[in-house]
Amino acid sequence: MAGYAAASALSRPSSAVSREAAAVRRNASSVVENVEKSIALFGPKAQALSELNFLASECRTSDWDGYGAEPVDGNALRMAREIIRSMPDNLSLPTFSIEPDGCVSLDWQPSRTRTFTLSAGKTDRLPYAWIDGTDRGHAVAKFVNGMLPPRILEEIRRFCSHDASLRAA
Amino acid sequence: MTLPSGLPDQVADHEDVARFLTSSGHFIAAAVKPAAFMPNPNNGETSVFRHGAEPLEDLLAIGQREIAGARSLHGAAIVKAKFIREAQLEIRAGEPPQRHADIVGWPWTAQDPDFDKAERKERAALIAQKAGTPLLF
Question: Is A143 on the interface with B (CB under 8 A)?
């Protein structure tokens, strides 16, 4: 949404009076309008996918992080998009990060002491880890038939709810 | 033993180390993401820089010179070495460049690469949580 934010700023009325400034403002307004239409039609998932696309473009070449990272993997991106599209509408959507091996990390961080992080990679196996106060762990889930396993969805739901501290060990 | 930077060759528990943030996806305003501390798959290490009492401008200069180059340098995740050791990892000085160190000892076996990665994510998440709010430049 960085592009949206920039376009939104440019689309605001300003004191600039040149023809070029007016053209820039008109074009920016059009971008803003299209993004907002997309959000209105497809909801927060469209916004999340737009954020993922922005990150992917930032990480498309080798060494995008300055530490020698691999470029974002095409299969990982497809998998991450599928996961987002498959998520129930009433579930909190993650933020994204690209990992040094080119995988896409889907991250839920509802508070400073809670993290649930799941990697979309080259296969349908999804490494994930969580920290919930003093409770923490890691495991691997499988993305089968275009769906996250129900226990993962339930875990994310519980993680993002206020009673996450009551979760069973 | 003293390194060319003047720092001791052992990274003490109380020392701060900085991981420079060059991807906008590696942090949010209030937190650092686990991916920021995940190791490079080619050498299995996470590169960091030791940060002492010197001014933040010095840290920024190291980040620009050694890591960012033409990339955006958004900030740094700063964490005490003791929290890296609490995550069952080790931190090893590695100069040059000056002040450089590596987080080593990440789980990496051939048996189940995905399970190993899950464990690395857990350890990276622990370190990221201890780093707290990112220092944004």
Answer: no
Q: How far is CA A110 from CA A54, A115, B7, B57, in A?
A: 22, 7, 38, 32
Tell me the whole-structure pTM to 2 decimals: 0.84
Instruction: Say if B2 falls within a structural domain.
Output: no
* Mean per-residue pLDDT over chain A, rounded: 84
Across A93-121, average pLDDT? 96
Q: What share of chain B is helix, strand, coil (3-state, %, to 5)?
A: 35, 25, 40
Does residue B7 belong to any structural domain of this protein? Answer: no
Work out the number of other CB atoms within 10 angstroms of the CB of residue A59: 26
Q: What SS3 state is found at B20?
A: strand
Domain count, chain B: 1
> Mutate which of A51, A54, A65 to disrupt the B interface (most B C-beta within 10 Å)?
A65
Cα A156 versus chain centre, distance: 15
Contact B129 A113 (CB under 8 A): yes
CA-CA-CA-CA torsion for A141, A106, B112, A135, nearest 10 degrees?
A: -80
Residue A136 has φ and ψ, to the nearest 5°, of -155, 165
Residues of B with CB below 8 A from A54's CB?
Answer: 24
Q: Searching chain B, which residue's CA lies closest to the CA of residue A52?
A: B25
Which residue segment(s) compose the domain that B79 sits in? 16-136
pLDDT at A43: 87
CB contact under 8 A, A66 and B67: yes
- Whether A71 and A62 have beta carbons less than 8 Å apart is answered as yes
